[in-house]
């Protein structure tokens, strides 16, 4: 038996539901729903991998969809989990770095815990029976094969320790370095640093079918090729129907080589090489001969060319479409500026990327010159095109390229034009918030009123934003610390420094039972089914489902609206306040984006009026604070939340004022004058208490009010005040009524 500690992830993870309304209100940047990790566990939509408790830096994930397994690369360990139940039949391989490598690593001044260990960074499916694995090996990268399969009904999960090989140029030395790799046709493509210091970076191809081990890389002596590149993603993408044209596209950021700017600006890039590149014959031997790169721009256009640039590529996600040659390219970028913190998501089309690679080359006369458009003669075949017998029987391989093609590509690997986002600018930005976006996963969802791309964005503070792009500037969101995200069968796998969790993409029931709540959420995964807010499937009976992702307007969608407005189905509470004392009327709407208005129907009056705040009556985010309660304050208080076009009463509070005179008559012994003075200071003190509460959200107002009530009760206990007994009885009755209404039917069925 294994005993599990409470996993660290419990405190490290945090999920928030964000929703941005159409107009630019101040509430725009606030998540509509904020779900803590505890909320997620309670709603059964989040399952932590309990082995995470050891804090092993879970950062490399490999899904084996066919066998329903998940492989996780962690510090000195590789885990094999069952997707049906992450915590059942867990298998693991312990693979630490060699002792002498750890010693050398320590002597080099590296950290024992966070650097001098074997951090698994490569997990790639090699063939039907084996997975290729590499680890940093305490700054001495090392690779090998894991056998994965079933033998006599037993799961085989074993590292072949007899056939380990060097991981140089396949895996980073430094566990913190960004790094990208992909395995295709048994070849491993990797973009990484090639040495201990991490200065020389390269894009390499290694391994391959056993008859054809052929190692190839970027040319280190050609400094226009890569300059301190940090690789973010590599993907095999076919370009045409001709397999000879198949390319590997890679995304990275690097230091700009434009001498016009003295500072070392960072630029984001897309690059590509041909799969069938074998290197040159006389020059560029075992180097790429088809290497090209172009700038990826993600900026908000400003007046007179004063654009806001997001230059540092952080993550890339390829959303596949029906055409495998044309996935949508989603990129997360951050600003390099030290002055302002911003992140943006930009989307690119492969057609635009290809157009730039088919466009003009950039030319640099010498190191001191700027990049200009190359105007000279372009050799044949056009540098960067893949060799193919179909096009030219004389050029069967890159070794057949004429010398002028080879020397051209050495000096002109950069395209002159840049790749701009599809919509001209970012599809989502976060500016001046105290976190940055670092990760992206996108899911394409069919909803009742259209198709939506839902973005899951990881941040550097350990939250995940769930965002849906609606028409142009309209968005819905959800905010969990992660290093890698993956989507598989409606689940999101989030690996982080502290652990791994499996998270469902939707939690429809958390929006509330009412049609309006479901509709306001604008979550394409959810629709109101006549009874509750539940998972929407395009194939299910259409007519009964209510959903409005585009506008989020419950008035047009929901039949229970009228009733909820006229009959005030809201919570109803009775509050007793003491004259001259402060009273707090709590009202917290479920949605953080709702704006609150208070209405009062004073005792004996027929009409409600909107309550106006003054120095005695203060509106706070948690409710209404009435200082020095007066008799005329008695009445019914309605707290109404307004969101989009939808207004509903969150709570109705019947405030009764216990007159001070009645209190005093039971306290004959007290000195009248001193008491009144105490009262005033007390109420002021209490106001201070309250302010403290608001700034420390761990203490709830409920608790506060409860405490105050008990204090009051204690004080009065020995005085035998008839009034108090009455109050307690009332309170009991009220509780009973509450239970009844809570268990009663809430939503009513509708028909169309
Ligand atoms: C897969 O690759 C491994 C390692 O090279 C080899 O031992 C094994 O036989 C291969 N399996 C198949 C099915 O080709
Ligand atoms: C107001 O509250 C304070 C603290 O509980 C209490 O001492 C005081 O008697 C209250 N005022 C009245 C009028 O009851």
TrEMBL record:
Residues 712-739 have a biased composition (Basic residues). InterPro entries: Ig-like_dom, Ig-like_dom_sf, Ig-like_fold, PSI, Semap_dom, Semap_dom_sf, Semaphorin, WD40/YVTN_repeat-like_dom_sf. Residues 563-656 form the Ig-like domain. Residues 32-505 form the Sema domain. Keywords: Disulfide bond, Glycoprotein, Immunoglobulin domain, Secreted, Signal. Belongs to the semaphorin family. PANTHER family: SEMAPHORIN (PTHR11036), SEMAPHORIN-3D (PTHR11036:SF36). This is Semaphorin 3D. It comes from Pelusios castaneus.
């Amino acid at each position: 038996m294994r005993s599990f500690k409470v996993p660290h992830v419990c405190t490290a993870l945090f999920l928030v539901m964000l929703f941005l309304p159409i107009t630019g209100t101040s509430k725009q940047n606030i998540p509509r729903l904020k779900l803590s990790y505890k909320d997620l566990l309670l709603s059964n939509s989040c399952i932590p991998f309990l082995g995470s408790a050891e804090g092993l830096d879970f950062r490399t994930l490999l899904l084996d969809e066919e066998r329903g397994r998940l492989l996780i690369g962690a510090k000195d360990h590789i885990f094999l989990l069952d997707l049906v139940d992450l915590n059942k039949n867990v298998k693991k391989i312990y693979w630490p770095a060699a002792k002498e490598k750890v010693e050398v690593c320590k002597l080099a001044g590296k950290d024992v815990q966070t650097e001098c260990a074997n951090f698994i960074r490569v997990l790639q499916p090699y063939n039907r029976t084996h997975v290729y694995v590499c680890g940093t090996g305490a700054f001495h990268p090392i690779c090998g094969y894991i056998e994965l399969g079933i033998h006599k009904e037993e799961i085989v999960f074993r590292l072949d320790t007899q056939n380990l090989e060097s991981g140089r140029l396949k895996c980073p030395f430094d566990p913190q370095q960004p790094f990208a790799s992909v395995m295709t046709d048994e070849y491993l493509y990797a973009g990484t640093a090639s040495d201990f210091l991490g200065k020389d970076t390269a894009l390499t191809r290694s391994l391959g079918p056993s008859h054809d081990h052929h190692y190839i890389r970027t040319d280190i002596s050609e400094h226009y090729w890569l300059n301190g590149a940090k690789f973010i993603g590599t993907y095999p993408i076919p370009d045409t129907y001709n397999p000879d044209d198949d390319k590997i596209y890679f995304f990275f950021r690097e230091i700009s080589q434009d001498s016009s700017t003295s500072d070392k600006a960072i630029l984001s890039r897309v690059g590509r090489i041909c799969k069938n590149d074998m290197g040159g014959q006389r020059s560029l031997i075992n180097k790429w001969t088809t290497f090209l790169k172009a700038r990826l721009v993600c900026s908000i256009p400003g007046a007179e060319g004063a654009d806001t640039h997001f230059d540092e590529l952080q993550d890339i996600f390829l959303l596949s479409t029906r055409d495998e040659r044309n996935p949508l390219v989603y990129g997360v970028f951050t600003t390099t500026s030290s002055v302002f913190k911003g992140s943006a998501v930009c989307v690119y089309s492969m057609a635009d990327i290809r157009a730039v690679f088919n466009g003009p080359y950039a030319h640099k006369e010498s190191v001191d010159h700027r990049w200009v458009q190359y105007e000279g003669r372009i050799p044949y075949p056009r540098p960067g095109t893949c060799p193919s017998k179909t096009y030219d029987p004389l050029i069967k391989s890159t070794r057949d390229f004429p010398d002028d093609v080879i020397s051209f590509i050495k000096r002109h690997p950069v395209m002159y034009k840049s790749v701009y986002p599809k919509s001209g600018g970012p599809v989502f930005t976060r500016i001046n918030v105290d976190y940055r976006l670092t990760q992206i996963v996108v899911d394409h969802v069919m909803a009742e009123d259209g198709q939506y791309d839902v973005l899951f964005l990881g941040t550097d503070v350990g939250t995940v934003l769930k965002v849906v792009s609606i028409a142009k500037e309209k968005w819905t969101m959800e905010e969990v610390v992660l290093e890698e995200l993956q989507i598989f069968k409606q689940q999101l796998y989030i690996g982080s420094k502290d652990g791994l969790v499996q998270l469902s993409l939707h939690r429809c029931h958390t929006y509330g039972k009412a049609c309006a709540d479901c509709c306001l959420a604008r979550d394409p995964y959810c629709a109101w089914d006549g009874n509750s807010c539940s998972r929407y499937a395009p194939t299910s009976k259409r007519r009964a489902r209510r959903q409005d992702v585009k506008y989020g307007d419950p008035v047009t969608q929901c039949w229970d609206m009228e009733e909820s407005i006229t009959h005030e189905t809201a919570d109803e509470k009775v509050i007793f306040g003491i004259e001259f004392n402060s009273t707090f009327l709590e009202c917290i709407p479920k949605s953080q984006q709702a704006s609150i208005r208070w209405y009062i129907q004073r005792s004996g009056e027929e009409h409600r009026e909107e309550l106006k705040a003054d120095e005695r009556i203060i509106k706070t985010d948690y409710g209404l604070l009435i200082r020095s309660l007066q008799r005329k304050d008695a009445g019914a208080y309605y707290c109404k939340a307004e969101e989009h076009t939808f207004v509903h009463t969150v709570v109705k509070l019947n405030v009764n004022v216990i007159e001070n005179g009645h209190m005093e008559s039971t306290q004959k012994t007290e000195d009248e004058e001193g008491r009144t003075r105490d009262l005033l200071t007390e109420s002021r003190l209490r106001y201070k208490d309250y302010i403290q509460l608001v700034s420390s959200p761990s203490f709830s107002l409920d608790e506060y009010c409860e405490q105050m009530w008990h204090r009051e009760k204690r004080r009065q206990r020995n005085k035998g005040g008839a009034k108090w007994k009455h109050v307690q009885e009332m309170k009991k009755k009220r509780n009973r009524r509450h239970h009844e209404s809570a268990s009663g039917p809430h939503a009513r069925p509708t028909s169309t």
